UniProtKB/TrEMBL annotation:
UniProt keyword list: DNA-binding, Sigma factor, Transcription, Transcription regulation
Protein name: RNA polymerase sigma factor
Classification via InterPro entries: RNA_pol_sigma-70-like, RNA_pol_sigma-70_dom, RNA_pol_sigma70_ECF_CS, RNA_pol_sigma70_r2, RNA_pol_sigma70_r4_t2, RNA_pol_sigma_r2, RNA_pol_sigma_r3/r4-like, WH-like_DNA-bd_sf
Pfam families: Sigma70_r2 (PF04542), Sigma70_r4_2 (PF08281)
KW Phosphoprotein (keyword) present: no
Repeat found in the keyword field: no
Length: 196
C-alpha cells in the first residue's frame, strides 16, 4: 500500500490500514519512547497511547508534514508527558518522605538515578556504557533530550529533526551542541572516545 493510500485508509477508519501503520512504525515508536522514559513497561503503555492518538487525530493530518515526522512528534510529546508525570510523582514522594507522611517506600536514591533498563538497539557489549549514557541523557532538558534521542538513537538527520520538532535547522544545531556539551560535562572522560 502506498503512503497516500495508507493515509486515506486511516482517515476512513480502515482497520487494515491501521494494522499496516502499526506494523511499519511500532518498533521506531517504542524505541524512541523507551529512550526518553527509560522504563520498558511505561514505554509499552506510551507507545500504545501514541497509536491511539494517531488513530483519533489522523483526520486532522493534512500532509503538510511527512507522516513519519508527525508520528515522531506525537511519540516524543507523549513520552515527555509521561516522563514528567512520573518524575513529578517521585519528587512529591521524596519530599513527603522527608516529613514521614508517605507510605511510598521508594528510596530517595531511586529519584536521582535512572532505572536499570536495556534498550533493544544497544548491543550486548555496549550495555554498561549505554546505562551510563542513558542516565546522562535523562538529565538533559526536554528539547535537548528529544533532539539527541532522535539523532543518535533513531538516526534521524538534523533536517528530519526540524520537521519533528517543528523548528529551524539552526535551533536543532544549537540544541545538539548544548546536549553534547552537557553530556561531556556529566560523563567526563568516560565517553571521550564516543564521538560526540
Amino acid at each position: 500500500m502506498e503512503l497516500q493510500q495508507l493515509i486515506d485508509g486511516l482517515q476512513r477508519g480502515s482497520q487494515d490500514a491501521f494494522r499496516q501503520l502499526v506494523d511499519a512504525y511500532q518498533h521506531r515508536v517504542y524505541n524512541t519512547v523507551l529512550a526518553i522514559v527509560q522504563q520498558p513497561e511505561e514505554a509499552e503503555d506510551v507507545a500504545q497511547e501514541v497509536f491511539v492518538e494517531i488513530f483519533e487525530s489522523i483526520h486532522r493530518f493534512e500532509g503538510e508534514d511527512r507522516l513519519t515526522a508527525w508520528i515522531y512528534r506525537i511519540a516524543t510529546t507523549k513520552a515527555l508527558q509521561s516522563y514528567r508525570k512520573r518524575h513529578a510523582r517521585k519528587r512529591f514522594a521524596f519530599l513527603t518522605s522527608l516529613y514521614g507522611t508517605s507510605d511510598n517506600d521508594e528510596s530517595a536514591d531511586d529519584r536521582w538515578h535512572p532505572v536499570d533498563f536495556e534498550h533493544p538497539g544497544v548491543k550486548l557489549e555496549q550495555k554498561e556504557r549505554a546505562k551510563v549514557l542513558f542516565g546522562a541523557i535523562s538529565r538533559l532538558s526536554d528539547q535537548q533530550k528529544v533532539a539527541f534521542t532522535l539523532h543518535h538513537v533513531e538516526g534521524l538527520s538534523y533536517a528530519e529533526i526540524t520537521e519533528v520538532m517543528n523548528t529551524s535547522l539552526s535551533s536543532i544545531e544549537s540544541l545538539m551542541h548544548r546536549a553534547k556539551v552537557n553530556l561531556r560535562k556529566q560523563l567526563g572522560s568516560y565517553y571521550k572516545d564516543s564521538g560526540f
